[in-house]
Design a protein that fits this description.
single chain; 12 strands; globular
């Protein structure tokens, strides 16, 4: 629809590029739903990709569209509550095929951010990047005291491209929510808002440094868990300078053993660190894939790259504890209660839901419970019940699933449930101990006291307005905009019907007495007859056109 081009006028070129990429990879249905095809030249061709499945086509199209869409795809890959396994499995393969930006393009921005040429600022600096990703490039350097560091530098002009993509995605999400009930269940506008927040956080490397320091502060008494030192004198929004930590990919078991490391101990320490971040601190590393975990000398575990962190409110932490306790004890009422509390459905069938929950628990009642698989199936259960989970929960569950998958590759015998159980019990006890309950009761009492103090005035105002007939009611009706559009169309049709009737009944007899003749009939009669026929045709079309 052309409204898209009008709303996104300043980003029209990018919009056309997006539509072209989607069509070239055979994702035509989405282009048509958004009304974007008419923006493209008629010469737009589709690639020969008949042998690929639709999930594969979408994944390739997303990779071609760049970092914003890759991040969106990675978020969707965690949404087992929305997408079937064939989609999430394919989207999990998303990665960026990028070439490094030449040093000549990076250097001016880096010199501006550091305040000096890095070749003069550091004892050693290598202008050849040691890693290149869609959002940043990484360079190695050495301080004058011999400390090895890395510089993570944002790619030039990236922010403006991502902001343009986010503007377009916001508008496209609005169109999908308005024009498709199937897409509306996905809450596309909420998802894009979540994506925008995540992307802007990752673009700000100073925020990444603060995330690292904040998580590290909770582990000052844990010498076996290591975080990089951030050098704040050179860190800003577009560059972060941090300690280079030597370590081994923890999933390379043979290399670990060859270096005298203990995979069992490393996996246990890594698991306890993740559990502490989530269950106790409420601030956790949200992307614990093998590249962000290091097996270090002395069986220490290192965490790097804090561009993505998750935060749990006390309320959400309490819900998580209830869910984990229900999963470990096989309590269907706890699982169903959490599903209902996270659901926007007002007409959920409790009996049907209970039966589905019992089947879910039966699948995980035999053998050792695996948190990752249980949470994946829990999200599939939500999808089957058409329950859309809050976005922050998908990030939390994805962290659990990724961490358990990585750590079980280090130690296949790792039992994350057994490690988590004492922590879960301790947190539940702390949540319901007398001091905590007293604190919450004091807060509620203060709230009720303030409410009670305001009540007499509110009642007095209500009675005054009732006495003078000035009570107003504000109502918010769902899909009211569609009702308004329908009424507007009905009004137009009614006007056409009235004009047609006027010509047919009121004006026609007099038209035969007016104007020059045409084929022996007055010209105004021809005009009246034509208007009547056109009006009748429109009314018949509106009456019988398919819905």
């Amino acid at each position: 629809m052309l409204e898209t081009a009008i709303v996104a006028a300043r980003d029209r070129a990018r919009l056309i590029e997006i539509a072209g990429v989607l069509i070239s990879f055979g994702v035509d249905g989405l282009v048509d739903q958004l009304g974007l095809r008419k923006l493209l030249p008629r010469t737009q061709k589709q690639q020969r990709i008949d042998e690929l499945s639709m999930p594969e086509r979408l994944r390739q199209a997303i990779e071609a569209l760049g970092p914003t869409y890759v991040k969106l795809g990675q978020i969707l890959a965690t949404r087992h509550d929305l997408l079937a396994p064939e989609w999430t499995t394919e989207l999990e393969k998303l990665h960026n095929h990028v070439t490094a930006v030449p040093w000549a393009q990076i250097a001016p921005q880096l010199i501006e951010d550091l305040g000096a040429d890095p070749t003069q600022l550091f004892l050693d600096f290598n202008p050849e990047p040691i890693a290149a990703a869609s959002m940043a490039q990484v360079y190695s350097a050495r301080l004058h005291d011999g400390t090895e560091v890395v510089l993570k530098v944002r790619r030039p002009n990236l922010s403006s491209t991502i902001e343009a993509d986010l503007r377009l995605l916001s508008h496209l999400a609005h169109l999908l929510a308005q024009n498709s009930t199937d897409w509306a269940r996905f809450k596309p506008e909420e998802m894009v808002s979540y994506l925008a927040s995540a992307m802007r956080d990752e673009l700000d490397f100073a925020r990444e440094g603060h995330n690292c320091d904040q998580v590290a502060a909770a582990f000052v008494d844990y010498p076996d868990i290591v975080f990089p030192t951030i050098y704040w004198q050179w860190t800003s929004e577009r560059v972060i300078v941090q300690e280079f930590m030597h370590g081994t990919n923890p999933t390379h078991a043979a290399e670990l053993i060859g270096k005298g490391l203990d995979p069992h101990l490393l996996a246990k320490r890594g698991a306890l660190a993740i559990l502490k971040m989530i269950l106790q601190d409420g601030l956790f590393h949200a992307d614990p894939h093998p590249g962000n975990l290091l097996a270090m000398a002395g069986n220490r575990v290192g965490f790097i790259d804090f561009g993505m962190v998750g935060r749990l409110s006390e309320r959400r932490k309490g819900q998580l504890l209830i869910l984990l306790r229900a999963l470990t004890e096989g309590r269907g009422d706890g699982v169903a209660a959490m599903l209902l509390s996270w659901s926007d459905q007002y007409d959920a069938d409790p009996v049907h839901l209970d039966m589905a929950v019992e089947r879910f628990l039966a699948q995980h009642s035999t053998g050792r419970l695996q948190i990752g698989r249980a949470l994946t199936d829990f999200m599939a259960l939500a999808r089957q019940q058409k329950i859309t989970l809050p976005a922050d929960l998908s990030l939390l569950f994805k962290t659990f699933i990724t961490a358990e998958g990585v750590l079980r590759r280090v130690d296949p015998q790792l039992d994350l449930v057994r490690l988590a159980e004492p922590m879960v019990i301790a947190e539940i006890k702390q949540h319901y101990d007398m001091s905590a309950m007293k604190q919450r009761a004091t807060y509620l009492a203060a709230e009720f006291y303030d409410l009670a103090a305001d009540t007499p005035g509110a009642i007095r105002l209500l009675l005054h307005r009732l006495r003078h007939g000035r009570i107003g009611v504000d109502m918010e009706l769902r899909h009211l905009d569609k009702v308004a559009q329908s009424l507007e169309k009905s009004a137009v049709r009614l006007c056409v019907a009235l004009v047609t009737a006027a010509f047919a009944l009121g004006l026609a007899p007099r038209l035969f007495d007016l104007g020059p003749l045409l084929l022996g009939v007055p010209l105004f009669a021809w005009i009246g007859l034509s208007a009547t026929l056109i009006g009748c045709a429109l009314l018949l079309y509106w009456l019988f056109k398919p819905k």
